UniProtKB/TrEMBL annotation:
UniProt catalytic activity: guanosine(37) in tRNA + S-adenosyl-L-methionine = N(1)-methylguanosine(37) in tRNA + S-adenosyl-L-homocysteine + H(+)
Lineage: Bacteria, Bacillati, Actinomycetota, Actinomycetes, Kitasatosporales
Highest taxon of the lineage: Bacteria
EC top class, as a word: transferase
Name of the molecule in the record: tRNA (guanine-N(1)-)-methyltransferase
Subcellular location: Cytoplasm
The encoding gene: trmD
Length: 269
């Protein structure tokens, strides 16, 4: 996979040289190219922003540098890239979207600063190639570089051969492919006893069926505690008999339509 990032702060992207992403780059599994937007400016101050039409606070990133940058990058590659625009007003970045983007051969990220990029840039390239406006959460940052780091790591770890164990991401929190997305449960390693805290007996029992059930139950409990919306939004029939018993222990019961909610017991069909 090739990833291009255009930024006025290319040094912000230095973490892409370390850890999992850095190793994937060194092995040739991931081709990451970081570009300084200011190299496509033509005035002595390397200006990339101006005041907004219609008034209002802040500055808007000018379309000319972005157009020249994107044209040059696209011309330097083969095929059609997908343009990823980090913005608080975009669609939520989820594990499912990370999986989808990990199948793309080429992504271009456009992290903006100030009040964002002149809308005409999005319209121009939206007519020529796939464009996604993506948000990593309901908050506002100083710029889009941090979201690029988040999304790149989430995507890169899904590429074949990047993780040492190819099955490592299959049990991730929010992993797609099931009717109910659950958070991952707690994990433990050696020693078996630490400061008076013991590893749960089931994990050292060697009974794979019981271990799998324990992990499923703990995932359900953690999801109820931290992301109850995922339980409430799960499809009817997403939970087996043991799941339903665990949810009942946590105070969740099926409604007549089969979905679960906290409260008093209902009547199952």
């Amino acid at each position: 996979m090739r990833i291009d990032v255009v930024s006025i702060f290319p040094e912000y992207l230095e973490p892409l040289n370390v850890s999992l992403v850095g190793k994937a780059r060194a092995r040739g599994q991931l081709d990451v190219r970081v570009h300084d937007l200011r190299q496509w400016t033509h005035d002595r101050h390397h200006t990339v922003d101006d005041t907004p039409y219609g008034g209002g606070p802040g500055m808007v990133m000018k379309p000319d540098p972005w157009g020249e940058a994107l044209d040059a990058i696209i011309a330097d590659g083969e095929g059609t890239p997908e343009l990823i625009v980090p913005t608080p007003s975009g669609v939520p970045f989820t594990q499912r979207l990370a999986v989808e983007l990990s199948a793309a051969p080429w992504l271009i990220f456009t992290p903006a600063r100030y009040e964002g990029i002149d809308r005409r840039v999005i319209e121009e390239y939206g007519a020529r190639l796939p464009v996604r406006e993506v948000s990593i959460g309901d908050y506002v940052l100083a710029g889009g570089e941090a979201p690029v780091l988040v999304m790149t790591e989430a995507i890169a770890r899904l590429l074949p051969g990047v993780l040492g164990n190819a099955a490592s991401h299959q049990d991730d929190s929010f992993a797609p492919g099931t009717m109910a997305a659950l958070l991952e449960g707690p994990v433990y390693t050696k020693p078996p006893s630490w400061r008076g805290h013991e590893v749960p007996d089931v994990l050292v029992s060697g009974h794979h069926g019981k271990i799998a059930r324990w992990r499923r139950d703990e995932a359900l409990r953690r999801t109820v505690a931290h992301r109850p919306d995922l339980i409430a939004g799960a499809e009817p029939g997403a939970f087996d008999k043991r799941d339903r018993a665990t949810l009942a222990d946590e105070g969740w019961w099926p409604r007549p339509d089969g979905r679960f909610e906290p409260g008093s017991p209902g009547v199952e069909e």
